[in-house]
Write a sequence for this structure.
């Protein structure tokens, strides 16, 4: 069930690997989108705003989880690309141990900090209690997110992007059923939507575990594999922590943006929440390309095939250009109609404000696509420091734009914050990638000779 990405046509490999990821990302977005849609249509707009107001806080924590689990899997992909199966098993065992420790720490900190963060963000008083009810359940369920993301990242590291898709589809269908059951039948409100998300993620993680145990002999861990390899752990932390903090740093900027947005009231929060959900649907191809390039570049880095990394980035960029045109046009012309699905036709102010954001953001999709491609490629070859600094750049530009432009242009200023942040981060990543490619400054893998480092 493994897939060696160090051989064959790069374009075909990238497309074949990306398609299941893209579809999987769409279904993963359904966790949040269906919560939002059902809450908005079956409870009320304030409940929709309450769920939306937790988005930045959720991204802060869950993004950290996604970052470190994906970072640990990069090391696994490098061992696999190098043909070192013993290293693959030791890497997976190390990732499990590190993830367990992180889960305990992150859960405790997030649960204790949930209400203070909501207050710090100036969450409107008419929705803060519902926001807390939703996010506290998500935080207690962090273990389910770690469970699924670590296993899914490991499966992808070995070249299989299709299986996690199947399990996400199953989990998404379950999420829909639980949403309706817990919200409509058991009258649990926004808490029901949160429980549906946690339970669905747990089920998808369990399915991954069963699948791995049956289909991946390479991952049958031995007793000796559980002896923590300090060098592997250091390498995983070297890659995983910057990736995790990069997500969290970006989330801090989103939190500041959410704080500026909260000052405009719950109607504007609902409009922005709706618009962002639509944007996320239209741009899911870019995270898919990014994840693909992380696996592709990590395997080829492990195999010493550095020229293939450069070819892969070029092909992925062409895909990003095409998809940014398609997605941008779709959002620009159809965004308002899609927004009506979330709030109904009786909320013209919400739909109008959602359209303001969608019309603006649709022109910047290609920049976002390149951000994902360059960032994940650099992470795949072990250069995780620069993506972290790009995240810091994104943070400061988002904060400045949110705080300054919102005072000058109002809601439009808030809408400009994300595009400005994307531009700043992408410029830094582009320069970093081009420098590494031209200078050949890859770190030489331990199992490669000096002669294999040339580009």
């Amino acid at each position: 069930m493994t897939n060696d990405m160090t051989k064959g046509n790069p374009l075909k490999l990238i497309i074949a690997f990306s398609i299941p990821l893209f579809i999987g990302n769409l279904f993963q977005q359904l966790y949040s989108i269906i919560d939002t849609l059902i809450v908005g249509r079956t409870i009320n707009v304030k409940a929709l705003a309450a769920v939306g107001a937790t988005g930045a806080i959720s991204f802060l924590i869950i993004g950290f989880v996604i970052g470190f689990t994906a970072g640990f899997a990069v090391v696994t992909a490098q061992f696999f690309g190098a043909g070192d199966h013993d290293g693959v098993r030791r890497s997976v065992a190390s990732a499990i141990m590190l993830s367990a420790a992180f889960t305990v720490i992150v859960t405790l900190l997030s649960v204790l900090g949930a209400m203070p963060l909501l207050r710090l963000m100036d969450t409107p008083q008419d929705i803060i209690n519902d926001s807390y009810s939703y996010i506290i359940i998500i935080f207690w369920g962090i273990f389910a997110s770690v469970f699924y993301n670590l296993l899914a990242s490991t499966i992808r590291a070995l070249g299989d992007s299709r299986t996690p898709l199947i399990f996400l589809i199953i989990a998404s269908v379950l999420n829909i059923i639980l949403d309706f059951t817990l919200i409509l039948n058991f009258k649990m409100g926004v808490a029901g939507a949160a429980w549906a998300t946690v339970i669905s993620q747990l089920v998808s993680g369990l399915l991954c575990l069963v699948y791995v145990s049956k289909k991946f002999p390479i991952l049958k861990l031995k007793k000796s594999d559980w002896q923590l390899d300090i060098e592997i752990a250091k390498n995983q932390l070297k890659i995983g922590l910057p990736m995790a903090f990069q997500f969290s740093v970006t989330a801090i900027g989103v939190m500041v943006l959410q704080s500026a947005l909260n000052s405009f009231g719950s109607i504007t929060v609902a409009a922005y929440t709706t618009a962002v959900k639509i944007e996320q649907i239209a741009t899911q191809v870019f995270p898919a390309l990014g994840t693909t390039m992380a696996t592709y570049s990590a395997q080829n880095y492990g195999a010493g095939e550095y020229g293939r990394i450069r070819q892969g980035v070029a092909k992925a960029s062409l895909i990003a250009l095409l998809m940014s045109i398609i997605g941008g046009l779709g959002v620009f012309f159809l965004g308002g109609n899609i927004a009506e699905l979330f709030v109904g036709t009786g909320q013209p102010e919400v739909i109008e404000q959602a359209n303001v954001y969608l019309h603006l953001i649709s022109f910047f999709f290609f920049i976002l696509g390149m951000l994902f491609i360059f960032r994940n490629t650099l992470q795949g070859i072990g250069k995780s420091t620069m993506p972290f600094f790009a995240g810091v750049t994104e943070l400061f530009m988002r904060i400045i734009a949110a705080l300054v432009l919102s005072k000058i242009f109002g809601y439009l200023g808030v809408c400009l914050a994300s595009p400005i942040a994307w531009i700043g981060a992408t410029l830094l990543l582009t320069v970093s990638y081009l420098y590494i490619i031209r200078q050949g400054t890859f770190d030489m893998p331990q199992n490669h000779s000096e002669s294999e480092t040339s580009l």
